[in-house]
Write a structure and sequence with these properties.
The structure holds 2 protein chains of 2 kinds. Chain A is an alpha/beta fold. Helices cover 68% and strands 7% of the residues of chain A. Chain B has 2 domains: 219 residues, Rossmann fold, CATH 3.40.50; 55 residues. Classes of the chains: A alpha/beta, B alpha/beta. Chains A and B meet through helix 1 and helix 7 of A and strand 6 and helix 2 of B.
Chain lengths: 415, 297
């Protein structure tokens, strides 16, 4: 037990001390924060109102908006402006002749601006048309109505809970994506570690002290800790950076009282949205599928690494390992569209796809027996694959300069 | 029996259809340097892996220090495999410490012992270097240190001198002899027969997955000695006689005594008839024995 702990420690420390780990750990949250902050920052910058000239028409009086300010100019000036727009103080000129509307500018006009102008003119024309037809626009206005559908889930005990499919979708997608990323990134990290030990020829030195299976499991667990550490650091750093950045960029313009009231509104909204979703169940299932999915796949990745001499040779063996992984990623969307269907059911039972697919389905509500069955199958499979991988591994790591075939792998399992 | 630190009894090992070892028997006396010889693919590495419990034999048994080989014997055995290396990106000291701890040494003791060996081999200044900065020979010195660091009773070296320049090879040879003198038992596998003659006390030869012979090196040499002598005389030809047959190589002759002829009689005859420059019993070198045995098989 002590020895496997030494291995876990080494695998963990060596990777955590690497420059690439430190760079990724710092860069990751900055990128995420940038994704969150930059749009806000850009939106703030373009808040300066754009000045738009309109030739005087008493029929079309456009209203100023948050981004646009309309100023009326005489026809003659508009005529000149339409021919020579350079050096003008305006962003654009709206030139109206009869029922043709033209926007002139010395730059590409933003789609927002032209859409807004179109919308206002259409509205004005609609009212004019209604009046001409002898209908009071107020009647039309009062006839409009708006409703919201409330969806409720009735559970086994007869209680009904508000449900929200958007939130389910979001949570399911995020959970599936995280598991996919984690397995792929850290599974291949395990594989590269095994190949490194093989090519540097240290493996025989080590397995004269520990069992090959201990070395393999030590590596898998060590890398798992690396992954968990990285995720944890990302979460913490993202929170820190986005908080700091938010204060830095937005404090001057946004009233802090308003933003905090906004936040409480958002929180209340989140709470109401997730009302129908069993968050504790999702949390624990996530941890379960996350870990067992990783353990299953990384042992297979380790077996692949042990069977080859160089990373370039992994192609032929890596494909069968990654195909179910990629397949489950592709299936996320169809499963979200139909989380109760046969495809969803079977994919959440098959252990190679279940870690991702079951997490996608869970927020929509899955019968307990399906969850337990899927977990049971996954546990059984991960014990089997680890056992098989261990057998391939212990023979593979001692084979040098020989390209293994599938037939040989089968023999190694039987030795 | 007590004098043998390691006994391998009737060990078989098969990989699928391929027989790596069949009925292999060796006995390694305590405090000896045992040369494990054999051509490539004879099964030496498999045998060493079995002794190190890297693989298990299909049948037969291995006795270590009087008891059946078991898991905690790992810490009494030091193994330097033929395919050996180190983590390239790791620092020398850190890595040696890790490997020592894997052998079951406590942290403090490992540090002390490592410093001792690093000083002894004059490599203390490498402690904080990364392995990739070292030359192959330098890395091999570190491998030697991590093999002996936990003070094992039995040391197993697979081709220990490959990759060493002559100066470093002689340093390692000196260390191996010193270890033997301090009571360690050493198994040593090599193709280089001259190093076998220099340092081995015992040898065992494996060919085609079977033990061909084993024993003290002098005894084996005696077995392969065939009563021939090298003789050099001033005269061109040897006088005809009925004591021995001879083959001429210019002034140099190889003579083979006939059956039931006393050596004294022969010497007397030669002295009487010739002026002798040199007379020497023809003892085959290990290399000659090795080639003869492997080719005859």
């Amino acid at each position: 037990m002590l020895k496997i702990w030494l291995i876990i420690q080494r695998e963990f420390l060596v990777r955590v001390k690497k420059k690439s780990f430190i760079v990724m750990t710092i860069l990751g949250p900055i990128l995420i924060a940038a994704l969150m902050i930059v749009p806000i920052y850009l939106a703030k910058e373009s808040q300066e109102k754009r000045l738009i000239a309109v030739n005087y028409q008493n029929k079309f009086i456009l209203e100023d908006t948050e981004m646009l300010h309309f100023s009326q100019i005489p026809d003659l000036e508009a005529e000149n402006l339409s021919k020579d727009f350079n050096n003008s103080e305006y962003y654009a000129l709206l030139y109206i002749i009869e029922n043709t509307f033209t926007l002139y500018s010395n730059q590409q006009i933003s789609l927002n601006v032209s859409n807004e102008i179109e919308r206002q003119i259409e509205q004005i024309l609609e009212i004019i048309n209604l009046k001409e037809a002898g209908i009071n626009p107020l009647i039309i206005e009062s006839a409009k109505s708006e409703i919201t559908i409330i969806t409720k889930i009735v559970d086994e005990k007869g209680n009904s809970i508000n449900s929200n499919s958007e939130a389910s979708m979001g949570i399911g997608f995020m959970a599936g994506l995280l598991i996919y990323m984690f397995i792929f990134m850290y599974g291949t990290m395990v594989m590269r570690g095994v190949i490194e030990e093989k090519t540097s020829r240290i493996v025989e030195v080590i397995i004269s002290s520990v069992k090959p299976f201990q070395l393999m499991m030590g590596k898998i667990l060590g890398v798992a800790f690396v992954g968990l550490t990285q995720f944890l650091l990302w979460i913490i750093l993202t929170l820190v950076i986005s908080t700091v950045a938010e204060l830095w960029f937005l404090d001057s313009t946004v009233n802090s009282a308003m933003s905090s009231s906004n936040q409480s509104i958002v929180l209340a909204k989140v709470a109401s949205l997730t009302g129908g979703i069993n968050l504790t169940q999702i949390f624990f299932s996530f941890i379960f599928y996350f870990l067992s999915g990783y353990l299953m796949y990384s042992s297979l990745f380790a077996a692949v690494g042990s069977a080859v001499d160089a990373e370039a040779d992994t192609q032929q063996f890596i494909l069968p390992v990654t195909i179910p992984l990629i397949l489950s990623f592709i299936l996320i969307q169809p499963i979200i569209d139909n989380p109760e269907g046969a495809l969803a059911f079977w994919m959440s039972m098959i252990p190679f796809t279940s870690p991702i697919i079951m997490m996608v389905r869970l927020p929509f509500g899955v019968p307990s027996w399906e969850i337990y069955l899927s977990m049971l199958i996954l546990i059984g499979t991960f014990i089997t694959t680890t056992w098989i991988a261990g057998r391939i591994y212990r023979t593979g790591i001692l084979m040098y300069g020989k390209k293994a075939s599938y037939k040989e792998l089968w023999k190694w399992i039987k030795y | 029996m007590v004098n043998n630190l390691l006994i391998v009894k009737n060990v078989d090992k098969r990989y699928g259809d391929y027989t790596a070892l069949s009925e292999v028997n060796i006995s390694v006396p305590k405090g000896s340097i045992y040369g494990l010889l054999g051509p490539n693919g004879a099964g030496k590495t498999t045998l060493m892996r079995i002794i190190n419990q890297i693989t298990a034999p299909d049948s037969g048994e291995v006795i270590f220090d009087g008891v059946k080989l078991q898991k905690d014997h790992i810490s009494y055995i030091g193994y330097m495999p033929e395919e050996r290396g180190l983590y390239k990106k790791m620092k020398v000291g850190e890595q040696a410490l890790y490997l020592a701890q894997l052998k079951g040494m406590p942290y403090k003791e490992a540090i002390e012992k490592l410093k001792f060996w690093f000083k002894k081999l004059d490599i203390l200044s490498w402690w904080n270097k990364k392995v990739e900065e070292l030359s192959k020979g330098m890395a091999q010195k570190i491998q030697f240190v991590v093999t002996v660091i936990h003070d094992p009773k039995l040391l197993i070296f697979d081709e220990p001198f490959s990759g060493f320049d002559p100066i470093n090879a002689s340093i390692i040879r000196k260390e191996i002899l010193e270890l033997r003198d301090s009571g360690k038992t050493i198994i040593f596998s090599t193709h280089r027969m001259e190093s076998v003659e220099e340092i081995c006390d015992h040898i065992g030869l494996i060919n085609k997955s079977k033990t061909i012979f084993e024993g003290p090196i002098e005894e084996i040499k005696k077995q392969f000695t065939n009563n021939t002598f090298d003789l050099e005389v001033k005269e061109k030809d040897l006088k005809q006689n009925n004591l021995f047959e001879s083959v001429d190589y210019n002034k140099h002759h190889q003579i083979k005594l006939k059956e039931n002829v006393d050596l004294k009689e022969v010497l007397h005859f030669i002295n009487k008839n010739h002026e002798v420059i040199s007379f020497k019993k023809n003892i085959p070198s290990m290399e000659e024995i090795f080639i003869k045995v492997v080719e005859d098989a």
